[in-house]
Give the backbone structure.
Amino acid sequence: MSKTILIVHAHPDPSALNSALKDVAVEQLQALGHRVLVSDLYAMGWKAVFDEHDFLDRKDVSRVSFVDESGHAYATGTQAPDIAAEQEKLAMADAVIFQFPLWWFGAPAILKGWIDRVFAYGLAYGYQGAGNTYRYGEGGLAGKIALVSTTVGGPAIDYRPRGINGPLDELLFPLTHGALFFAGMTVLPTHAVYEVGRLREGSAADMFEHWRGRIRRLFLDDPISFRKQNGGDYPDRHVLHDAVAPGRIGLTAHVASTEEGDREPIFASPRVSAEQRT
Amino acid sequence: MSKTILIVHAHPDPSALNSALKDVAVEQLQALGHRVLVSDLYAMGWKAVFDEHDFLDRKDVSRVSFVDESGHAYATGTQAPDIAAEQEKLAMADAVIFQFPLWWFGAPAILKGWIDRVFAYGLAYGYQGAGNTYRYGEGGLAGKIALVSTTVGGPAIDYRPRGINGPLDELLFPLTHGALFFAGMTVLPTHAVYEVGRLREGSAADMFEHWRGRIRRLFLDDPISFRKQNGGDYPDRHVLHDAVAPGRIGLTAHVASTEEGDREPIFASPRVSAEQRT
């Protein structure tokens, strides 16, 4: 069945690897009969900075409460038009692909600003005006697939479980878990290409073929098994039950292991890197 | 001895808690005889988006390589003037305080864009044109103190070692370790105020007094004990030596425990929250 996919793309150069990955995704999705929407943030001149000008009918002009004004503007249809337009694309989308270069171990500011501005109160948090009742696995974006695809300058070895940068899945946890899963999305394992400066023709061909495979399996691949807030693992909605991942602390405790009790990372990212290909 | 402190501030409302924390820091530092520089990013209309217009003399106009163009522009004095101005403040600063509201478990886009644009190749990475030789504890910003101060909407319980959001220190690791320590800075434990919507007069007074204490101890407090790349823990500059934090994986393995072998988080953030104060 034909689906709608939104690609949020964050690189200004049409000849860059990120743009090539975006183009390959568009081609592959269209070949499968899907409808593709692209938010090319640099080409659109996307406003990255969330500020009071995004609220066209202020609830309280004496102060700037982003939570209150975002909720009011979203509920009353008085958000800045560019925010509303992105939310309309999101509403139509069955899946969203985020394509960006990893800068300082996170998304470029233009993409962070897309999250900051588009993920409004009432939609991506404070769903149904019910505080934190529906976060992490439920909420305004529930039922939608999310796939993060990033290019990394450094070698994969730096991102190993004991690599000096830390594992990529933990570095991207604020995005994958804290924004996308928080808002209800079903998040696939991150697609990462390492050592982009060293890609050679042969390995680039393999890498693109791997990426085409990820795109073909967009609605088939198993997601990261982030624990749902209301699935029983957090009886008070705040802290893991003692019997869940006993003794584990930190970010990875919020991902269910294939075998409970594993201490290995459990994001199961299919990694592609120059290192592995050579 | 009088020092120079740069405060990078990311909230548009002068009456907001973040602005009050910034004002308190300015007052306290000036009372101590220090010189204070403030980069009030919203007030300055800071350009968040790093793009090709930031390079006034392109090395290669046929493509946009941020690494190559950033290195060329930094080396030849052809960066956008607003970037160069921030780097001049950085060069003068003995310490830098980052003050921002936590949005989607990270810095607002305007502050991420400050890092993206100001942390140039040759300064914050690729120091001395030597690739990754001097990162993590050495580099262009070595000798400078960094203090991250953030306000959090949610309750502290959500950020406990097994709290549903994950520990704040791990969520901010891409900033504290991946950007500030990477560039050589000495990073203090993060200052966080939780449940900012529920601050009452009494607890706010306590919170500000605690913050004044942090400011007074800016050059005295022990930093987070991130492991230096070239201190012996990473013999190949990529992966932890087997004998260091044996068996530990993930982000927290890169912070030395007070007692080696501890499994508890070791960032030692002095936390202040409404929860703890009531």
Observations:
- The first strand of chain B starts at residue 4 and ends at 9.
- Chain B touches chain A through 73 residues (CB under 8 Å).
